[in-house]
């Protein structure tokens, strides 16, 4: 499939500060990479690429049909898994327990807050895609949510960049950068073009999502947060085209398992290798969907396991908590009391019994906001990531 490569242009450069090496301070010109417009381009793969897309669509459809309706907690589970893995690609990793504390309203680290913000941004983008076309404002709104936890990045959030940025290389100039995106004055037109492409309904779904992501990363429209918003764009397109209705395909876990390969595929896209990136995303969707189906089966078996461990009395506070754990795997005392519908004393006794049995673990001992998590669900989050990583490396 012929796809236009980026053109390289030389632009003048004026250092903004007297920092860095001598080469940084004396730099006078840079080479920027400018993507072609893609809104009206066609993409019709054949052979192995077409077969990879078909396999991906089948795998995602099976995940959705087999789990989306019958195990609602899986949708929240996969959404959180995707957002956290996407954050880890950007070296933001608080760990599941710290993330759980943040999700339940407990005192949280900056990294945990950032990961929670990634969840909120993904939810916003997917919800928008479910209701109608993707717009620049929907991306800007998601970006504001993503950047909100950090005061300094929040200042420039919710707007496309007005400065030249770059990936890799020096901290001060684009010397030796891996990628120098287009100048800021070209970003608005490129984003309009990209969104027109992303909203089309006459393209193969997997290819459309993959190419939109690669184009977004090439434009790099924000000063920060491009990776996480760009990966959320894949999920948004899958939702807009109706391939998913409830589940989120945990693609970021594949990218996290071999980030060098992921970034190499993006670089090749800029050289015109659209087929390579489409095949990469298609295979990733297949592996991650199949692993998620295994996770769905494991989650579905947990309630019986918990009942066997605890042996609760019918309609007891213990039984009511067990029935709610898949839907609410991390919660505080107020949520627990709402679930049990009984007194503080009875609720706390039930929580203590489930903790002693190993069903729950305490994430926060704070007297003002004690937080519990379901041990098996936290373990399954790690298991899913490991399973996707193994499938990725085994088929590399």
From TrEMBL:
InterPro entries: Fido (IPR003812), Fido-like_dom_sf (IPR036597), Fido_containing (IPR040198). It comes from the Bacteria. Signal peptide: none annotated. Residues 1-26 are annotated as: Disordered. Gene3D superfamilies: Fido-like domain. Residues 134-283 form the Fido domain. Residues 1-12 have a biased composition (Basic and acidic residues). This is Fic family protein. It comes from Rhodococcus artemisiae.
């Amino acid at each position: 499939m012929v796809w236009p490569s980026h053109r390289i242009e030389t632009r003048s450069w004026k250092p903004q500060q007297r920092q860095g090496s001598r080469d940084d301070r004396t730099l006078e010109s840079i080479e920027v990479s400018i993507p072609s417009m893609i809104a009206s381009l066609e993409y019709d793969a054949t052979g192995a690429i077409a077969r990879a897309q078909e396999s991906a669509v089948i795998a995602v459809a099976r995940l959705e049909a087999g789990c989306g309706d019958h195990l609602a907690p899986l949708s929240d589970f996969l959404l959180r898994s995707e957002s956290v893995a996407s954050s880890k690609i950007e070296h933001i990793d608080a760990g599941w327990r710290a993330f759980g504390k943040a999700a339940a309203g407990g005192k949280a680290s900056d990294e945990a807050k950032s990961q929670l913000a990634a969840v909120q941004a993904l939810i916003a983008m997917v919800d928008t895609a479910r209701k109608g076309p993707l717009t620049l404002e929907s991306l800007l709104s998601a970006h504001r949510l993503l950047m909100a936890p950090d005061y300094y990045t929040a200042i420039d959030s919710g707007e496309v960049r007005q400065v030249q940025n770059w990936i890799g290389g020096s901290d001060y100039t684009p010397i030796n950068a891996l990628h120098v995106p287009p100048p800021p004055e070209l970003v608005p037109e490129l984003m309009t073009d990209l969104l027109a492409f992303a909203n089309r309904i006459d393209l193969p779904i997997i290819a459309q999502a993959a190419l939109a992501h690669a184009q977004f990363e090439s434009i790099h429209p924000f000063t920060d947060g491009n990776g996480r918003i760009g990966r959320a764009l894949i999920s948004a397109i899958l939702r807009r085209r109706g391939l998913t209705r409830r589940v989120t395909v945990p693609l970021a876990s594949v990218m996290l398992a071999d980030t060098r390969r992921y970034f190499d595929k993006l670089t090749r896209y800029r050289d015109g290798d659209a087929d390579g990136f489409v095949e990469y995303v298609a295979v990733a969707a297949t592996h991650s969907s199949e692993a998620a189906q295994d996770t769905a089966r494991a989650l579905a078996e947990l309630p019986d396991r918990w009942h066997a461990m605890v042996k609760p009395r019918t309609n007891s506070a213990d039984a009511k908590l067990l029935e709610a754990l898949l839907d609410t795997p991390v919660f505080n005392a107020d949520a627990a009391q709402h679930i049990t519908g009984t007194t503080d004393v009875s609720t706390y006794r039930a929580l203590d019994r489930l903790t002693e049995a190993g069903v729950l673990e305490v994430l926060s001992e704070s007297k003002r906001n004690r937080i519990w998590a379901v041990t098996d669900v936290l373990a399954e989050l790690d298991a899913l990531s490991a399973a996707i990583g193994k499938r990725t490396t085994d088929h590399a």
